[in-house]
Amino acid sequence: MLAELSPALIAEVKLAAKLLAAKQHICILTGAGISAESGIPTFRDKQTGLWENYGVEDLATPEAFTRDPKLVWSWYQWRRQLVADKAPNPAHHALAQWQYHAQTSDQQVTLITQNVDDLHEQAGSSVTHLHGHLWRNRCGQCQTPSQDQPRTSYDNRNTMSFDEALLTCPHCGGYIRPDIVWFGEALPIQAWQIAEEAAANCEVFISIGTSSLVYPAAGLAQLAKQNGAKIIEINPDPTPNTIVDITLAEKAGVILPLLIEEITAL
Ligand code: APR
């Protein structure tokens, strides 16, 4: 499989594998790009990116939901339909395999994602979500999680209703919203603590499939670097991330199975 890559990229994969196999504390941050090969659109890729075709300010801010809850709810119900039948790709599976392998070695592989899909979980990974969960709802007013909504957990994916009619909270009558972090909102405290701690204490930080444009998540690589970590980036396209030590410029679904195969063989 390595033979399918250019000699320069093969050398970089081997270098990254050697570095990773020698270290104990690894922190991985994934973004929309890791789910792209599963058929889920990213946000900022030209033509196909969601924010290339829809207005962030109309759909992914608390102000938008206050202004037009029906529009926002309908859009997220459409996104749920889009994602419902999608399955993990080789990149998700490779990371899950690595975490499984790490249980019997000295390594601690902490996986943090900006994604709201559940493909890491479906692949068997243990993952911390920084930007919430597409398949969970909560009240937009009193913030109570909607336990009675379909698909509040990851295993009842077949019972999800994609109805566009607005739902109201049984406690306060407020409109139900997806449990997703919108622009201008704070990240979940516990998830952010896990991410900051893992980034600050890791020896290698791997950024996968993210444009590194959205903070505070994009700042995790800088935090890791300041604390002495090496930075690896897996992304077929360049990003503004200037602190990268090893760039693996290919799709995550191509690189990760090879990289993890190399690491676990060393
Ligand atoms: N493998 C790896 N990377 C890929 C692949 C792939 N197969 N396909 C695309 N990419 C890269 C793109 O080159 C791009 O740099 O994935 C990145 C996706 O970037 P964005 O669309 O900006 O997604 P992300 O960085 O996750 O966005 C961050 O923005 O709108 C918010 O909350 C949303 O969590 C999201 C946040």
UniProtKB/TrEMBL annotation:
Annotated positions binding substrate: Y76, R79
Cofactor stoichiometry and binding remark: Binds 1 zinc ion per subunit.
Cellular compartments annotated: Cytoplasm
Keywords: Cytoplasm, Metal-binding, NAD, Transferase, Zinc
Ranges where the Deacetylase sirtuin-type domain occurs: 6-266
Listed name of the protein: NAD-dependent protein deacylase
Keyword Nuclease attributed: no
Record's catalysed reaction(s): N(6)-succinyl-L-lysyl-[protein] + NAD(+) + H2O = 2''-O-succinyl-ADP-D-ribose + nicotinamide + L-lysyl-[protein]; N(6)-acetyl-L-lysyl-[protein] + NAD(+) + H2O = 2''-O-acetyl-ADP-D-ribose + nicotinamide + L-lysyl-[protein]
Residues involved in NAD(+) binding: Q114, N115, V116, D117, G209, T210, S211, N235, P236, D237, A252
Required cofactor names: Zn(2+)
Domain of life the protein comes from: Bacteria
Stated family: Belongs to the sirtuin family. Class III subfamily.
UniProt cross-references to PANTHER family, sorted A to Z: NAD-DEPENDENT PROTEIN DEACYLASE, NAD-DEPENDENT PROTEIN DEACYLASE SIRTUIN-5, MITOCHONDRIAL-RELATED
Free-text comment on this protein's domains from its UniProt entry: 2 residues (Tyr-76 and Arg-79) present in a large hydrophobic pocket are probably involved in substrate specificity. They are important for desuccinylation activity, but dispensable for deacetylation activity.
General function of this protein: NAD-dependent lysine deacetylase and desuccinylase that specifically removes acetyl and succinyl groups on target proteins. Modulates the activities of several proteins which are inactive in their acylated form.
